[in-house]
UniProtKB/TrEMBL annotation:
Residues 35-257 form the Ionotropic glutamate receptor C-terminal domain. Belongs to the bacterial solute-binding protein 3 family. Transmembrane segments: none annotated. InterPro entries: Iontro_rcpt_C (IPR001320), SBP_3_CS (IPR018313), Solute-binding_3/MltF_N (IPR001638). This is Transporter substrate-binding domain-containing protein. SMART domains: PBPb, PBPe. The lineage of its organism: Bacteria, Pseudomonadati, Pseudomonadota, Gammaproteobacteria, Vibrionales.
């Protein structure tokens, strides 16, 4: 009986290795290295941030750790400047982008996206002196107003497309863009609703906000083009964690509680 069990175990290992070797280039690479390397740009609350002890925390980070655990590999965070994050993926510095990236046609020409894992939209941080004067993004579409956003984001795209009459200043980080409003150098900032909601709550004595999103933006995980097996894996993983309650638990931790703020303040 021991010999039969040994033979069956060996056969199972051979079948597993054979399946793994044909799972697609990205999945094969992850299995071979024993690592899931996820690219993101730390600073996008509450998706990916750097804590006081210099570790990375956030909604995407937790999802990545669950994914790696289910794959049986180590989660490796790859903090990358936003304007270089797609090139980093394409050149193999990471296996996928888990960075609150909005799915759009321009990006989809360079990478493949899995199904959206969360829906957000653009909201507004407003200088308190304009309370009552600015009630929607349309009110900002005027040369007398200065608007900020983060370079290379959908916030910037929205400003250029929908607020073309306003003066626009771009910044490397969303925090710098928001600080312009606090410092009185800008009238408003256009950016993703989760960041606007949290930042406005943290600085309620310094800024006002219009939280209701005025755009529809699905966020998705991105992988190299030409690997449908990895996209299939991501979609199935997402369905699984949404079905077993894991997704809701992580979502509630980062979007329905502010307990995590003490880790970054």
């Amino acid at each position: 009986m021991k010999h039969k069990i040994g033979k069956l175990a060996a056969l199972g290992a051979i079948i597993f290795c054979s399946a793994s070797a044909n799972a697609g280039p990205v999945l094969d690479g992850i299995a071979e290295s024993g690592e899931l390397r996820a690219c993101f740009d730390a600073g996008y609350m509450p998706f990916e941030m750097k804590s006081k002890n210099n570790s990375y925390i956030g909604f995407d980070i937790d999802l990545g750790k669950v994914m790696a655990k289910q794959m049986g590999v180590k989660y490796v965070p790859v903090n990358t400047a936003w304007d270089g994050i797609i090139p980093a993926l394409i050149t193999g510095k990471c296996d996928l982008i888990m960075a609150g990236m909005t799915i759009n046609a321009q990006r989809n020409m360079k990478v493949n996206f899995a199904d959206p894992y969360i829906i957000v939209g653009q909201s507004i941080i407003v200088n308190p002196k304009l309370k009552g004067e600015i009630n929607s993004y349309k009110d900002l579409n005027d040369p007398k107003y200065t608007v900020t956003s983060k370079l290379g984001t959908t916030g910037e795209v929205v400003v250029k497309r929908m607020l073309s009459k306003a003066k626009y200043n771009a910044f490397e980080t969303e925090t710098d863009a928001a600080m312009e409003v606090i410092n009185g150098k800008a009238d408003a900032m256009i950016y993703d609703m989760p960041f606007v909601s949290i930042y406005a709550a943290q600085n309620s004595d310094k800024v006002d906000s219009i939280l209701e999103p005025f755009t529809y933006e699905p966020l998705g995980w991105a992988v190299k083009q030409g690997d449908p097996d990895m996209v299939n894996f991501l979609n199935n993983f997402l369905r699984q964690i949404k079905g077993d309650g894991t997704y809701d638990r992580i979502y509630d931790k980062w979007f329905k509680s502010d307990a995590w703020l003490k880790q970054i303040n």
